[in-house]
Amino acid sequence: MQNLQEKASEWSGVETNHAFAIDDTNLFQKLGLQTFINLSTNFYNRVYVDDEEWFRSIFAKSDKDKAIQNQYEFLVQRMGGPPLYSQRRGHPALIARHRPFPVTHEAAERWLLHMQQALDNISDIDHDSKIMLMNFFRHTAYFLVAGVEQKNQSLHPCKDADGRHPCKNF
Ligand code: HEM
Asked: For binding heme b, which residues are annotated in this chain's numbering?
Protein backbone atom coordinates (compact mmCIF):
# COMPACT_ATOMS: atom_id res chain seq x y z
CA MET A 1 0.00 0.00 0.00
CA GLN A 2 1.27 3.47 -0.86
CA ASN A 3 2.04 5.76 2.05
CA LEU A 4 0.67 9.28 2.24
CA GLN A 5 3.87 10.95 0.99
CA GLU A 6 3.92 8.67 -2.06
CA LYS A 7 0.29 9.39 -2.81
CA ALA A 8 0.90 13.12 -2.36
CA SER A 9 3.80 12.98 -4.85
CA GLU A 10 1.83 10.98 -7.39
CA TRP A 11 -1.29 13.15 -7.21
CA SER A 12 0.50 16.51 -7.01
CA GLY A 13 3.24 15.72 -9.54
CA VAL A 14 5.79 17.10 -7.04
CA GLU A 15 8.52 14.77 -5.78
CA THR A 16 8.90 14.70 -2.02
CA ASN A 17 12.48 16.05 -2.12
CA HIS A 18 11.30 19.01 -4.22
CA ALA A 19 8.45 19.72 -1.80
CA PHE A 20 10.90 19.78 1.11
CA ALA A 21 13.51 21.96 -0.59
CA ILE A 22 12.04 24.61 1.75
CA ASP A 23 14.08 22.95 4.51
CA ASP A 24 17.40 23.64 2.74
CA THR A 25 16.98 27.38 3.04
CA ASN A 26 15.39 29.71 5.60
CA LEU A 27 12.56 31.44 3.76
CA PHE A 28 11.46 33.24 6.91
CA GLN A 29 14.85 34.97 7.19
CA LYS A 30 14.85 35.71 3.49
CA LEU A 31 11.29 37.05 3.20
CA GLY A 32 10.38 38.30 6.68
CA LEU A 33 7.18 38.24 8.76
CA GLN A 34 5.29 40.94 6.85
CA THR A 35 5.59 39.02 3.55
CA PHE A 36 3.87 35.98 5.07
CA ILE A 37 1.15 38.19 6.58
CA ASN A 38 0.64 39.76 3.13
CA LEU A 39 0.56 36.36 1.41
CA SER A 40 -2.05 34.84 3.76
CA THR A 41 -4.15 38.03 3.66
CA ASN A 42 -4.06 38.08 -0.14
CA PHE A 43 -4.92 34.35 -0.27
CA TYR A 44 -7.91 34.54 2.07
CA ASN A 45 -9.15 37.78 0.46
CA ARG A 46 -9.55 35.67 -2.69
CA VAL A 47 -11.00 32.59 -0.96
CA TYR A 48 -13.75 34.51 0.85
CA VAL A 49 -15.07 36.07 -2.39
CA ASP A 50 -14.55 33.03 -4.62
CA ASP A 51 -17.09 32.84 -7.49
CA GLU A 52 -17.31 29.10 -6.81
CA GLU A 53 -19.83 28.87 -4.01
CA TRP A 54 -18.97 25.21 -3.25
CA PHE A 55 -15.40 26.25 -2.43
CA ARG A 56 -16.23 29.49 -0.62
CA SER A 57 -18.72 27.63 1.58
CA ILE A 58 -15.97 25.34 2.96
CA PHE A 59 -14.72 28.42 4.86
CA ALA A 60 -18.16 29.78 5.80
CA LYS A 61 -17.90 28.89 9.50
CA SER A 62 -14.35 30.23 9.89
CA ASP A 63 -13.57 33.80 10.90
CA LYS A 64 -11.48 35.35 8.13
CA ASP A 65 -9.01 37.23 10.36
CA LYS A 66 -8.45 34.10 12.46
CA ALA A 67 -7.94 32.00 9.31
CA ILE A 68 -5.33 34.50 8.08
CA GLN A 69 -3.53 34.41 11.43
CA ASN A 70 -3.64 30.59 11.60
CA GLN A 71 -2.11 30.33 8.14
CA TYR A 72 0.64 32.93 8.38
CA GLU A 73 1.71 31.74 11.83
CA PHE A 74 1.93 28.19 10.50
CA LEU A 75 3.91 29.32 7.45
CA VAL A 76 6.31 31.46 9.50
CA GLN A 77 6.99 28.46 11.75
CA ARG A 78 7.30 25.96 8.90
CA MET A 79 9.61 28.25 6.89
CA GLY A 80 12.20 28.54 9.66
CA GLY A 81 10.79 31.35 11.83
CA PRO A 82 9.63 31.42 15.48
CA PRO A 83 7.02 28.79 16.52
CA LEU A 84 4.14 31.29 16.58
CA TYR A 85 1.56 28.72 15.52
CA SER A 86 2.42 26.03 18.08
CA GLN A 87 2.68 28.55 20.91
CA ARG A 88 -0.95 29.50 20.30
CA ARG A 89 -2.54 26.38 18.78
CA GLY A 90 -0.32 23.41 19.73
CA HIS A 91 0.85 20.77 17.26
CA PRO A 92 -0.23 21.63 13.69
CA ALA A 93 -1.72 18.12 13.13
CA LEU A 94 -2.90 19.33 9.74
CA ILE A 95 -4.64 16.12 8.66
CA ALA A 96 -6.74 16.00 11.83
CA ARG A 97 -7.54 19.72 11.63
CA HIS A 98 -8.71 19.36 8.01
CA ARG A 99 -10.88 16.34 8.69
CA PRO A 100 -14.11 18.31 9.17
CA PHE A 101 -13.75 19.73 5.64
CA PRO A 102 -14.30 18.20 2.18
CA VAL A 103 -10.61 18.19 1.17
CA THR A 104 -11.07 16.64 -2.27
CA HIS A 105 -8.83 16.75 -5.37
CA GLU A 106 -11.06 19.50 -6.72
CA ALA A 107 -10.78 21.53 -3.50
CA ALA A 108 -7.00 21.11 -3.52
CA GLU A 109 -6.80 22.48 -7.08
CA ARG A 110 -9.01 25.45 -6.17
CA TRP A 111 -6.96 26.15 -3.02
CA LEU A 112 -3.76 26.00 -5.09
CA LEU A 113 -5.17 28.32 -7.76
CA HIS A 114 -5.87 31.00 -5.15
CA MET A 115 -2.45 30.48 -3.60
CA GLN A 116 -0.73 30.76 -6.99
CA GLN A 117 -2.61 33.99 -7.68
CA ALA A 118 -1.76 35.34 -4.21
CA LEU A 119 1.94 34.54 -4.78
CA ASP A 120 1.81 36.22 -8.20
CA ASN A 121 0.49 39.36 -6.52
CA ILE A 122 3.20 39.66 -3.88
CA SER A 123 6.06 41.49 -5.57
CA ASP A 124 8.60 41.05 -2.78
CA ILE A 125 8.90 37.27 -3.19
CA ASP A 126 11.62 36.31 -5.67
CA HIS A 127 11.00 33.74 -8.41
CA ASP A 128 12.96 30.87 -6.80
CA SER A 129 11.19 31.27 -3.46
CA LYS A 130 7.81 31.25 -5.24
CA ILE A 131 8.69 27.95 -6.94
CA MET A 132 9.83 26.45 -3.63
CA LEU A 133 6.68 27.59 -1.82
CA MET A 134 4.39 26.36 -4.58
CA ASN A 135 6.05 22.91 -4.62
CA PHE A 136 5.54 22.69 -0.87
CA PHE A 137 1.91 23.85 -1.17
CA ARG A 138 1.08 21.42 -4.01
CA HIS A 139 2.55 18.44 -2.22
CA THR A 140 0.97 19.38 1.13
CA ALA A 141 -2.46 19.97 -0.43
CA TYR A 142 -2.47 16.43 -1.86
CA PHE A 143 -0.95 15.03 1.33
CA LEU A 144 -4.04 16.44 3.07
CA VAL A 145 -6.39 14.97 0.44
CA ALA A 146 -4.79 11.54 0.94
CA GLY A 147 -4.66 11.87 4.73
CA VAL A 148 -8.26 12.99 5.18
CA GLU A 149 -9.44 10.25 2.80
CA GLN A 150 -7.52 7.61 4.74
CA LYS A 151 -8.80 8.83 8.12
CA ASN A 152 -12.39 8.85 6.89
CA GLN A 153 -12.06 5.33 5.47
CA SER A 154 -10.42 3.83 8.54
CA LEU A 155 -13.18 5.16 10.77
CA HIS A 156 -15.93 4.07 8.41
CA PRO A 157 -17.89 1.47 10.40
CA CYS A 158 -19.04 -0.32 7.26
CA LYS A 159 -15.71 -0.71 5.53
CA ASP A 160 -13.14 -3.37 6.37
CA ALA A 161 -9.37 -3.18 5.89
CA ASP A 162 -9.58 -4.46 2.31
CA GLY A 163 -11.96 -1.69 1.35
CA ARG A 164 -14.98 -4.03 1.13
CA HIS A 165 -18.32 -2.90 2.49
CA PRO A 166 -19.51 -5.73 4.76
CA CYS A 167 -22.67 -3.91 5.78
CA LYS A 168 -23.45 -2.31 2.45
CA ASN A 169 -26.86 -3.97 2.32
CA PHE A 170 -28.08 -2.74 5.69
C1 HEM B 1 -6.27 21.10 -0.02
C2 HEM B 1 -7.15 22.08 0.10
C3 HEM B 1 -7.38 22.78 1.43
C4 HEM B 1 -8.60 23.09 1.95
C5 HEM B 1 -9.96 22.84 1.30
C6 HEM B 1 -8.36 23.71 3.23
C7 HEM B 1 -9.35 24.17 4.07
C8 HEM B 1 -9.13 24.73 5.31
C9 HEM B 1 -10.16 25.26 6.16
C10 HEM B 1 -11.66 25.32 5.85
C11 HEM B 1 -9.57 25.71 7.28
C12 HEM B 1 -10.23 26.40 8.51
C13 HEM B 1 -9.88 27.87 8.49
C14 HEM B 1 -9.35 28.33 9.84
O15 HEM B 1 -10.16 28.53 10.74
O16 HEM B 1 -8.11 28.49 9.99
C17 HEM B 1 -8.15 25.45 7.16
C18 HEM B 1 -7.23 25.74 8.12
C19 HEM B 1 -5.88 25.58 7.95
N20 HEM B 1 -5.24 25.14 6.83
FE21 HEM B 1 -6.11 24.44 5.16
N22 HEM B 1 -7.01 23.76 3.46
C23 HEM B 1 -6.37 23.21 2.38
C24 HEM B 1 -5.02 23.12 2.20
C25 HEM B 1 -4.06 23.56 3.09
C26 HEM B 1 -2.64 23.54 2.86
C27 HEM B 1 -1.97 23.05 1.56
C28 HEM B 1 -2.03 24.02 3.98
C29 HEM B 1 -0.58 24.21 4.30
C30 HEM B 1 0.36 24.35 3.44
C31 HEM B 1 -3.09 24.36 4.91
C32 HEM B 1 -2.90 24.88 6.18
C33 HEM B 1 -3.89 25.20 7.06
C34 HEM B 1 -3.65 25.69 8.42
C35 HEM B 1 -2.31 25.91 9.10
C36 HEM B 1 -4.91 25.90 8.98
C37 HEM B 1 -5.24 26.35 10.41
C38 HEM B 1 -5.63 25.13 11.24
C39 HEM B 1 -6.07 25.50 12.64
O40 HEM B 1 -5.28 26.09 13.38
O41 HEM B 1 -7.21 25.16 13.01
N42 HEM B 1 -4.30 24.07 4.34
N43 HEM B 1 -7.92 24.87 5.95
From this structure: 98
Find the residues whose C-beta lies inside 6 A of ligand 1. 58-59, 62, 66-67, 70-71, 74, 89, 94, 97-98, 101, 103, 107-108, 111, 137, 140-141, 144
Residues 6+ apart with CB under 8 A from 92: 74, 77, 78, 85, 86
Q: What is the ipTM of this complex?
A: 0.98
Tens of pLDDT, residue by residue over 78-116, are 999 999 999 999 999 999 999 999 999 999 999 999 999
Q: State the distance from the centre of ligand 1 to the C-alpha of 95, rounded, in angstroms.
A: 9
Give me the phi and psi of 81, to 5 degrees please: -95, -170
Map out the domains of the chain with their CATH numbers. 4-153 (1.10.490.10)
